[in-house]
Amino acid sequence: MRSSSKYTLALASLLLCGAPPAAGAQSTPCAVPTSPAHEWVRLCASGNGIARLQRAVEVPSGAMAVGDAIREIARRGGVDLTLDASLPAVAERVTLSGGRRSVAGALLQVVDGRRVEIDVGVDGGLIVVAAAASRGEGVRAADSDSVRRAVRLSRIVVTATPSHAGLLDAPPLVGMQTIGVRQLALAPGFFGTDVLRSARLLPGLSARNDYSAALNVRGGESDQSIVMLDGIPLYHPFHLGGVLSSFIEPAVSQMDMYTGVFPARYDGHLSGVLDVRSAEEARSGVHGTADVSLLASSVTFGGTTRSAATSWLVAGRRTYADVFLGKLLPYHFGDANVHLSHRFDGGSRIALTAYTDLDVVNYRPTAASDTIQASAGNRAVGVSWSRNVEHVPAALALFGERAAVEQRASITAYDATVDPYYKDFAFSSRVRDGRLAGALSVFDSTTRHTLGYELARQRLDRAASVSFIPEARNFSPDGRSTGELRSAALWYELRRQVTPALGIEAGARGDLVAGVGGALLSPRVSARLALDRNTTLTAAVGRHAQWMHSMLREEAPLRVVDFWIASDSVVPPSRAWVYTLGLERRLDALRDLHVELFHKQLSGLVVPEPLGDTLRTGEAIGVERGRSSGADVLLRQAEHNGFAGWLSYSFSLSRRTDASGFSYAPAQDRRHELNLVGSWHTNGYLFGARFGLSTGTPYTDVEGVFERQRYDPLLDSWSPDENGAPRQYLLAPRNAERYPLAHRLDLSVTRIGRDGSARTTPYLSIANVYGAMNPALYVFNY
Question: Which of 5, 291, 307, 630 is the most core-located residue (most Cβ within 10 A)?
């Protein structure tokens, strides 16, 4: 059961009753947004009880568009703003005289007498929508659609969020999808909303099977993508061997996904970046949520000071399987998140994020020889500081009128061990990651110049002892390796709005990695062309580099732990050229269509030794090249009469070629993947459904096995080979077979109610309703 004064679906009452009537200025009585009855109310001069809206800011001065004025005031106040840029009133001109006013007062000054209204939600976020002509005329359908579209699913109208307060988080012109937790919550989950597992239902992201939340981006290997929290890198943030992600849902606001060409400020991976953003509580006082499921319980508390300068949030989660099942399941996991932010009067902002996750297995049977102890987890902390400069020094005035600067530092520690009583089957992996980064941006209304740097150091240690079970070498190569990476990067990005319809973003990044000869140069360029008010073409090309590689075989059905090695003079860095071509189309006020073609040309792919003779000696790694091509399609339905959802389809064709010239389909080559996700909110209930259909991934067939023996000429006899593997497998061509077609239906129902001042939302989720048999692996027994 979930108790919450915060967690809610946006626009529940607004969708049932229509947009509140308005004529000109917002003069209705002031109300405080509350859930579930009044989740969205009209903004009033007092700030509706939201401390952040009562905060005083400098009002812009001069003539400008209404939309620009609203965005600038929201940015200065650190307020989450969603604005439908297609509204006619947004393009009107307004003249402001400056001065200092509250955020709410300044916004109402801008829209006074205009055909728009501003509504505020329970989390302090604002939406700007069309106003009805008058109370007598009621609410027009188009206005109601504008309300729904402004809040649900359409990322292109989101113009300002507190999580993008820094330069290193600024959204690029092309290539990023921002998905809010409320949108991800539309899909049924195993145990509530799982951020990374739900992200798999979007095009371009997939996993090898139903049991893993580890992500493959557009045909790339799992280690070619990185998961971050507020810009802090995390290593394998999963539980139960990759079944669940380690993020606590109420502590997350949204996720930024890059699946094509990254901005120049990102590198070190070839295929994808998933940056999870911490939630910030906008209301003063203390507010919290509690979530209780069959697997685990979580608690989240947060608040904002009366001055709205400081926001804090603390979240924790732990499973209790070990408490109730004891020796039957001696396993538990736990997570903790802390996020603090403070805005100074001078326009600067500082934020702190701390995070930890831990899996523990403590199996202690009567026989000491069967003891198994294992643990895996991250510990990370990061801090960022940013400041906006309204008047740039004379030396920078040539590049723009205003400037912003940011500094960021983070430390991540990842440790994983499997330590049985007998040490001849043991694994360990250790990563220490420290980073320091910064950026300076100078900009005006049409051009932005950004120059940044990043210094990083990673220490890597991995060990695998699998002599007792030779077949385990197919999980990870035997042996131990240590390494240290020291890198320095300098990057530059230029964004220019050439015409009202054409925008271009170009950049380059140079990385110097100790031990790797020469600089790794990575140029990128992207363009966005509006054909009309509803249709946009996008194109991008860029080069990426990666110098950390996982030794866990991609064929492993669950990614229990990752083993990392570093590029050096022997192990080359991996490189990729990425090309994308996209079309974005607003079909109507409720529906958006996004289609994107992609092609990736990869070289220097570092992979563990292929499956084969387990007695083979020599190098434990190989270097391959490859390609991935395909298309992603996303059709999104904004909430209308309580219904919302999306359809996603991905086609991907991937090939890898080893050093001998043999070409094969990699283990993550899932050709077709279709997901249908929908939710229906009615009479206090939320019904959710998800149907998935996908082609099977490749595997290598085992055609036979024989016992390896040694001949003794003195005794003229045969005996088992004690110096090698007792079994020899006969394999078919690598990944020549495929698992069968996979399909699954998930359903959920949530009751949204109240218990006094708290909100209770009991829910029931059913995964794989009709019990489809979707194999994750085959076990061969000869």
Answer: 291
